[in-house]
């Protein structure tokens, strides 16, 4: 499995350093060892179909760096075509590869497209989230919505998966990963499924505040542990 790693250097420009000293950038209070942010998803969170450097991983890394999060490593463990079952199998076989301080779980779109029973999707995601919660990992869920043509019952049952799991595990929920992007031709690729570079930028703008709050929480936990 190819993993993309985007590491921020310790040095930023003088203007950013000055801003951090004045405004109390969260990067200033981060622990000495880099925090690990893992993206666990499918093709929506890979770089599929967009120019190099404009996929979700590098775009999110750039946003975090611009916001002062200098001491973070972003690992993209997403795999195009993955279902929730595929991701769970990968986690079970090589769990050490997917350890993180914060994880973004963006899965379920391929299950929905193949009309997998919502109960199966929920069970797979529940297993994934349970594992991360037990390890003390902060969780951000990138939710998915079902296509209207799948019918009312499927729509309602599937769409309830993500808020229910977020509430159960105390995870941060971004209700629809493609919010503000899906259905907008200027932000989508020609397949009408995947975001283009502009669409990725829109996703990053929407989800970044949730990610940053969880990085802050993870940094705080790390500082407490280091002080003991």
From TrEMBL:
Pfam families: Lipase_GDSL_2. Residues 1-19 form the signal peptide. Keywords: Signal. SUPFAM superfamilies: SGNH hydrolase (SSF52266). It comes from the Bacteria. InterPro entries: Ester_Hydrolysis_Enzymes, SGNH_hydro, SGNH_hydro_sf. One of its GO terms (molecular function) is phosphatidylcholine lysophospholipase activity. Residues 39-201 form the SGNH hydrolase-type esterase domain. This is Arylesterase. It comes from Methylosinus sporium. The lineage of its organism: Bacteria, Pseudomonadati, Pseudomonadota, Alphaproteobacteria, Hyphomicrobiales.
């Amino acid at each position: 499995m190819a993993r993309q790693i985007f590491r921020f250097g310790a040095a930023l420009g003088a203007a950013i350093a000055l801003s951090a000293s004045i405004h109390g950038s969260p990067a200033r209070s981060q622990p000495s060892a880099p925090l690990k942010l893992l993206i666990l998803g499918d093709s929506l969170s890979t770089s599929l179909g967009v120019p190099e450097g404009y996929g979700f991983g590098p775009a999110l890394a750039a946003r975090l760096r611009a916001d002062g999060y200098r001491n973070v490593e972003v690992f993209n463990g997403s795999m195009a075509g993955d279902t929730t079952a595929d991701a769970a199998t990968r986690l079970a076989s090589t769990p050490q590869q997917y350890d993180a301080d914060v994880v973004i779980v963006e899965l379920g779109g391929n299950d929905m497209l193949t009309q997998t029973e919502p109960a199966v999707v929920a069970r797979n995601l529940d297993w994934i989230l349970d594992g991360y919660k037990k390890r003390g990992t902060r969780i951000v869920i990138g939710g998915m919505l079902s296509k209207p043509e799948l019918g009312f019952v499927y729509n309602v049952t599937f769409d309830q998966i993500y808020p229910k799991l977020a509430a159960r595990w105390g995870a941060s929920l971004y209700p629809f990963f493609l919010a503000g992007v899906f259905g907008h031709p200027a932000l989508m690729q020609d397949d009408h499924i995947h975001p283009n570079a502009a669409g990725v930028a829109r996703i990053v703008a929407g989800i970044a505040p949730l990610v940053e709050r969880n990085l802050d929480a993870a940094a705080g936990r790390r500082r407490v542990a280091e002080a003991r």
